Amino acid sequence: MSSEVAYSIVVPVFNEEEVIAVTYERLKKVMDTTGRPYELLFVNDGSKDKTAQILSQICQQDTNVKLINFSRNFGHQVAISAGMDNALGQAVVVIDADLQDPPEIILQMIEKWQEGYDVVYATRKERKGETLFKKWTAAMFYRLLRSITDVDIPVDTGDFRLIDRKVCNVMRNIKEKNRFVRGLVSWVGFRQTAVEYVREERFAGETKYPLRKMIKLSLDAMTAFSHKPLKLATYLGLLFSSLSFLYLLFVVFEKLFTPYTVPGWTSILATSLFFNGIILTILGIIGEYIGRIYDETKDRPLYIIDSTIGFSREGESHD
């Protein structure tokens, strides 16, 4: 059956009632120009507004549209994974619903895919409507991630991308819980290339990636693709142990051969607080890794589907 669908467009959504109808119209307009069978697969990640109702109505009007409703909010990266799990197309495109990633770029991705590339990712050459803080932290994150991992994760690139059916099949077999999809797509390899685009301002509504979620995504990315933060504990331990030993020699020398002594405990207290801070930081890093190991050992389903529309089977649960 998958051979009947040329393109699957996976759209994770969470509280997007203000923009979802426009998103559908633009996606439909773009995909109709391809002249090939396609599906628009919306994954409702536990929305609390009217997103599910609007998409349900669209599904009734357009047989190319499918909807997956989660039982609760499982997160953006999990919603993308669910879309990949259920997509039927020979090429699968992931795009957010907020229209910051222009649907028209999909046609450029398809051209690259037809040239023989297995993954076509969209690189942002400009980001409109974002604060300097957001732009600076995003740039720093991508470059830090690239420097500490052995995987070539492209900078200035989000989840907006096209993947071939064989790449999608590989992704379906990856079951880790704390997911960083764009990193996993880079990790699996295959022939990859980029198309550049200008990221637009959000069409309507509020961002679904506030600072708290951005920090969590960053931690998921770094812990999933690098163990160098753990090595940091060893390096810091060796460094400060060496400095402490040298300082000890200095204190002994000062006591034995000079008339000077330490007049108080201020320096000792400050040093103690500094090292305690280092220790707590290291314990926090270790805790992040242990927490992710704990999540993996529980082996719970990655997500739970409450209902579906447009599929042959309803109410499925996947892991």
From TrEMBL:
> What sections of the sequence does the record tag as coiled-coil?
none
* Record keywords: Cell membrane, Glycosyltransferase, Membrane, Transferase, Transmembrane, Transmembrane helix
Give the transmembrane region(s).
Answer: 232-253, 265-290
Q: Does Cell membrane count among this protein's keywords?
A: yes
Q: How does it sit in the membrane?
A: Multi-pass membrane protein
Write down the SUPFAM superfamilies for this protein, in alphabetical order: Nucleotide-diphospho-sugar transferases
- The answer to whether UniProt assigns keyword Membrane to this entry is yes
Location of this chain's protein in the cell: Cell membrane
The UniProt GO MF terms for this protein read: glycosyltransferase activity
Q: Which GO terms describe its cellular component?
A: plasma membrane
Q: Main localisation, per the record?
A: membrane
Cite the Glycosyltransferase 2-like domain residue spans from the record.
Answer: 8-168
Q: Which protein family is named in the record?
A: Belongs to the glycosyltransferase 2 family. GtrB subfamily.
Q: What is this protein called?
A: Dolichol-phosphate mannosyltransferase
Naturally occurring in which organism (per UniProt): Desulforamulus putei DSM 12395
